[in-house]
Amino acid sequence: MNDNTIPAGVPAVDIDPFSDAFLTDPYADHERMREAGPVIWLTKYGIYATARHAEVRAVLNDHENYISSAGVGLANFNKEAPFRPKSLILEADPPSHTKARAILARILSPKTVMQIREAFQQEAEQLLDRFVAKAAEDGQVDGVTELSEVYPLKVFPDAVGLEAEGRKNLLLYGNMVFNSFGPRNELLRKSAELVQPVTQWIMEHCSREHLRPGGFGDMIFQAADRGEITQEEAPMLVRSFLSAGVDTTVNGIGNALLCLAQNPDQYEKLRADPTLARPAFEEALRYESAVQTFFRTTARDVELAGVKIAEGHKVLTFLAAANRDARQWPDPDRFDITRRPTGHMAFGSGIHGCVGQVVARLEGELILTALAKRVKTIELAGPPTRRLNNTLRALSNLPLRLVTA
């Protein structure tokens, strides 16, 4: 945490972006921060922040001035030791980041995605058949526990080569990881407590002997065999791959279902034209960003939107606020699946943009396509429940009522 002396000429804002109230409903505070200025000072933590699209994008795309190796959370790893090993992807800078990312980018190439599409589509259609049948039998279903968690926990770990037993442990681990990017508050304490019993499982199942030959995980170890990374780095990269590739997709799909249930006119458009599934998922990512925030640290004295920031300062980027910036999007608080939200920040941007976004997009598209082909209307059967997380926009329950075609 930095010295909390308010810098001259920088608007000071007394919002706590990690409070329960903010995490439950951040949008009014997002607007307040955007309108305060292009760069603001959050007095609660003594840090710089930006909530406008242009400045968020500028920070994320300038990896030389705004580094990730000091941590993408509030803690500054140049001043304190991380409480867990750093991610080889999220919390690294070139050249080490370049090496690890090149391996994952090769594994998740467009050719690979085409190869897994058929299997992912079959799983989506089979899951939706069960989902619709259960809705008909019980009168309602849970969009989170019976769909948005089930599908990514099936298809992505299958592709990685992880055994089926115990996969829900990934959700506990991911919840802790994304909580760790905020302050050491009650959310982090509770999630760290919950993950302790499964930590050994996570570490063991990122090892080579627990991964199916030929899967994405095995491909990472093959890269280690070729000397592209060390044998010690390989399981760490598998771990980062799994934590990044499951949680964000679970929440992206859950939020998309909520958006469609709350906007029946938009679901009607999707129902009439299921090819809108991909843009509908993109709009949901913009409108209810699964990843809300990320930090960077200044590598040297920099200037952002006319504000001079000294070396070693944390800068908090509000991805979700950028995604509703009226300077970038017309009528940004309206969910519109015919919008083309190119340039949204939900997957980050620049060299640290989510390496698994191509798979997340595929999963979102296939689930929404299968839904549109089977379900005439989707509506809330009760109030949804948010699962608060320092970084993620997550749901713990989403009761839905479906009317089938």
Q: Return the CATH architecture.
A: Orthogonal Bundle
Overall number of strands? 13
Mean pLDDT: 95
Main CATH class: Mainly Alpha
For the largest sheet, list the strands in their spatial order.
1-2-3-9-6-4
* Element order: H for helix, E for strand: EHHEEHEHHEHHHHHHHHHEEEEHHEEEE
Shape: globular
**Class of secondary structure makeup:** alpha+beta
Calculate the terminal CA-CA distance, rounded to whole Å.
Answer: 55 Å
Sheet with the most strands?
Answer: 6 strands, mixed
Helix content: 40-55%
CATH topology-level fold name: Cytochrome p450
Beta-strand residue percentage: 5-15%
> Number of DSSP helices?
16
Unreliable segments (pLDDT under 50, ≥5 consecutive)?
none
CATH superfamily: Cytochrome P450
Question: What's the helix and strand layout?
Answer:
Elements: E1 12-13, H1 20-24, H2 27-36, E2 40-42, E3 47-50, H3 53-60, E4 66-67, H4 96-107, H5 110-138, E5 141-142, H6 144-148, H7 150-160, H8 169-179, H9 186-195, H10 199-205, H11 216-225, H12 233-262, H13 264-272, H14 277-287, E6 293-298, E7 302-304, E8 307-309, E9 314-318, H15 319-322, H16 357-374, E10 375-380, E11 385-388, E12 393-397, E13 399-404
Parallel strand pairs: 1-2, 3-9
Antiparallel strand pairs: 2-3, 4-6, 5-13, 6-9, 7-8, 10-13, 11-12
Helix pairs in contact: 5-7, 5-16, 7-12, 8-9, 8-12, 11-12, 12-14, 12-16, 13-16, 14-16
Question: What are the main properties of this structure?
Answer:
about 400 residues, alpha+beta, Cytochrome p450, 6-stranded mixed β-sheet, 13 strands, globular
